[in-house]
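new request in #modeling-help
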Amino acid sequence: MRRAGEGASGGSRLGAEAVIKVDNLSFRYLGSEDYALKDITLEVKRGDFVVLAGRSGCGKTTLLRCLNGLIPNFYEGDFSGRVLVCGMDTRETPPHILSQKAGMVFQNPDNQLFALSVEADVAFPLENLGLPREVILERVEWALKLLGIEDLRDRSPFELSGGQKQKVAIASILAMKPDVLLLDEPTSSLDPASAKSLIDSIVELNRREGLTIIISEHRLELLLPHASRLMVMDRGRIVYDSDPRSVLEGGDLLAYGIALPRASEVARYVNLRGGCLRFEKIPLSVDEFVERVRGFIA
Amino acid sequence: MATLLQGLQFQPGASVIHRLDPRVKLLISTTLLITSLLYLEVAVTSLVIAVELILSAISGTAKRWAKTVYGALPLVILIFLMNYLVRSFSEGSYCDPSIIYVSFATAYRLIAFLASFSIFFLTTTPEELGMTLTKLRIPYTYSFAFISAIRFTPILAEELQTIMDAQRSRGLELDRGNPIKRVRRYIPVLVPLIVNALRRSYELAEAMEVKCFGASEKRTFLRELRMKPRDYAGLAAALLSLALAIYARFFLELNLP
């Protein structure tokens, strides 16, 4: 994996190569009246950290499924437009090839672990691909280390907490060395502390390994300070797609069912009321907020 | 019944038996099973039970093994009574010592029979079970189904409990009424359970797809069973005993009690 440039707050990286290209994509599930995705066009560059937000049912999951070829290979329906993953058309590439380029982690960790030990679970996709044993061993080692779960190696999935299980699920996908990691609400079944620990690991993957990440999430507070792009979806369309700060400054996200980070919300409110304290830049985290207030007092 | 099944539940340990190759353990259990089936003689059955007891003592699972035997007792008594009654009835005499002996031997043999596979199941991890299936050339799809069954049974059990609690809190009474009524009362529990299981199976299929299940014709395995010298010794001992048991049964004129 390539190392990402520093400064994760400049929208899409200029000059970096596009790992995912979507052109005029529309999709309707078989037996459904409405289109789940309507005319979507986007490009994700290598090293991007994209946060996908929007109310439940807005098409986030469907979009992620399109990005790794589960649609149209696994789900049937009306598919139009084109999705390229690392230059490969998802309609013409078998799922097991696409999965090695764009790895997907789902909501429920229990439904992604099949083996009876952590090590076997991480090795599972590699065994399925028929890789030689030495390679598997090396990659399992690497993936476990990357998520800091080497000590769980011999545990059974029944002994793990939800957060640990989700880390194992991510490790098992990473062991395939994908170019892009797609995560579909990975923290939805976790308590706040495990969710934070999981998101910290994901942020680290982007920072240290330069891994391209697309994550759909409701817990924006933990993600936005690290994200390079915030994409807001509503009824199958992308309504905002820019660096997080511009999106927060630009629109009324509440209308799209998105809860702003508390610090941003307070800052917006202060700006709205007017007065002597003003935030030129909407803070994304409590730290930024505090810094601005300090600067004002000084 | 529940105590009888406890003898099939893996009990962690690090004994010699635990570390023995599961294929060898499978053969040992099979040998014990076949021997107990070949002989009706009480002496041989006692020997088989003694061997089972020693093996489970070495592996530190004697308590569980004893529970299996204890759990089997009602069944053993039932077999004895049925044998005794049927035989006595057809013979017309009720105090024939040979009838009592044969009935006892049959029931006694059942203990050796039922407990023979405890050795295997008590000391073999579910993972090793899966690997054994693979080594026995069973197609991976089947051994995968078997491993998944072990993996997801506790999850489904938990789900069943949740649904039962949820329906109880809505006023469903599961433990009242006659048997037919009770069975009917389980419908509101079973329907959501099945619906959830179907939904889960779809998610599992999706995850399997993403993890390249079935991508390669020739799947590799990270961990495989390897026979060590100790395993070969166990294998030889088991084969020898089995051969001896068969030979003695069919070619020697034994006069055992």
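bot summary: Chain B has a mean pLDDT of 89.
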